[in-house]
Amino acid sequence: MLSYRHGFHAGNHADVLKHLVQSLVIEYLTRKDKPIRYIDTHSATGGYSLEDDFAKKTAEWKEGIGKIWQKPDLPEALSDYLEAVSKFNNNNQKLKLYPGSPSIAANLLREQDRLSLFELHPADSRQLARNFEHDRRVRVSQGDGFAGLKSLLPPLEKRVLILIDPPYEVKDDYNTVIKSLKEAFKRFAVGVYAVWYPRLDSEHSRRFGHKLEKCGAQRWLHVTLDVRGNNTAGMFGSGMFVVNPPWLLEQQLKETLPQLTSMLSETPDAGFTLKTHGMD
Ligand code: SAM
């Protein structure tokens, strides 16, 4: 079953949290010249029009990137993320396009870095390949990203960011993420693994944050951002679980989350949590 299309959701509040964390990790990893490998297990297409039928149908971006775009006095930590979005829009002030995670990574990475992108949906995978056909750093594979990840570990590079961002339209995705992480740690324990998940009023979603924290990682950071109270319908928030996070990430998020949450909030009971383990 492949009904999920990220075009309906691109640039929403969950993308803002995910792509902010992604850009902060990449900024940190690129402080040294050594090459980086970026692995995106669930890439989608890598870029979206905010004016096409997908985006118009839901207009979710208006409640996400739309609330922070071109706003004054934003926290410093948002600058790389927003610069990547701006470049994707050819530095136009009007927001017409939104970059997916592969484009944000490609934008922030350098000549010596490599990107391995997986996408299962045939049409989205073709679009992804077209979007990166002139970028020699990028390899696009159509197929299962969990199997793809396994096939790449351990990579040649020591500095590696793995983004795991399934749609969770099949409940199995929750278990598969945990299983994949456990297998991946055995093959490559030092990678930075960033897992995104939705916060929903469902048993699977409620328990998932706890399962991630117990998945065997030694050092992790866990952030959630809810734009509405947690007993409301639909996706009221999202979480990012980062294994082996850069040591600066906690401080950067501490400084950013209060203002970001207040800008993205839909009801007065919006909120965030930030937790770390093994970081001392
Ligand atoms: N990471 C993207 C971003 O931030 O721009 C969004 C990814 S979207 C949430 C999830 C994508 O995973 C969808 O495009 C879906 O087709 C794809 N997908 C679903 N199951 C997959 C699998 N087993 N392996 C790879 N891709 C899969």
TrEMBL record:
<comment type="subunit">
    <text>Monomer.</text>
</comment>
<feature type="binding site">
    <location>
        <position position="42"/>
    </location>
    <ligand>
        <name>S-adenosyl-L-methionine</name>
    </ligand>
</feature>
<dbReference type="InterPro" id="IPR007473">
    <property type="entry name" value="RlmJ"/>
</dbReference>
<protein>
    <recommendedName>
        <fullName>Ribosomal RNA large subunit methyltransferase J</fullName>
        <ecNumber>2.1.1.266</ecNumber>
    </recommendedName>
</protein>
<comment type="function">
    <text>Specifically methylates the adenine in position 2030 of 23S rRNA.</text>
</comment>
<feature type="binding site">
    <location>
        <position position="19"/>
    </location>
    <ligand>
        <name>S-adenosyl-L-methionine</name>
    </ligand>
</feature>
<comment type="similarity">
    <text>Belongs to the RlmJ family.</text>
</comment>
<feature type="site" description="Interaction with substrate rRNA">
    <location>
        <position position="4"/>
    </location>
</feature>
<feature type="binding site">
    <location>
        <position position="101"/>
    </location>
    <ligand>
        <name>S-adenosyl-L-methionine</name>
    </ligand>
</feature>
<feature type="binding site">
    <location>
        <position position="165"/>
    </location>
    <ligand>
        <name>S-adenosyl-L-methionine</name>
    </ligand>
</feature>
<dbReference type="Pfam" id="PF04378">
    <property type="entry name" value="RsmJ"/>
</dbReference>
<keyword id="KW-0949">S-adenosyl-L-methionine</keyword>
<feature type="binding site">
    <location>
        <position position="119"/>
    </location>
    <ligand>
        <name>S-adenosyl-L-methionine</name>
    </ligand>
</feature>
<feature type="active site" description="Proton acceptor">
    <location>
        <position position="165"/>
    </location>
</feature>
<keyword id="KW-0698">rRNA processing</keyword>
<keyword id="KW-0694">RNA-binding</keyword>
<dbReference type="InterPro" id="IPR029063">
    <property type="entry name" value="SAM-dependent_MTases_sf"/>
</dbReference>
<keyword id="KW-0808">Transferase</keyword>
<keyword id="KW-0489">Methyltransferase</keyword>
<feature type="binding site">
    <location>
        <begin position="144"/>
        <end position="145"/>
    </location>
    <ligand>
        <name>S-adenosyl-L-methionine</name>
    </ligand>
</feature>
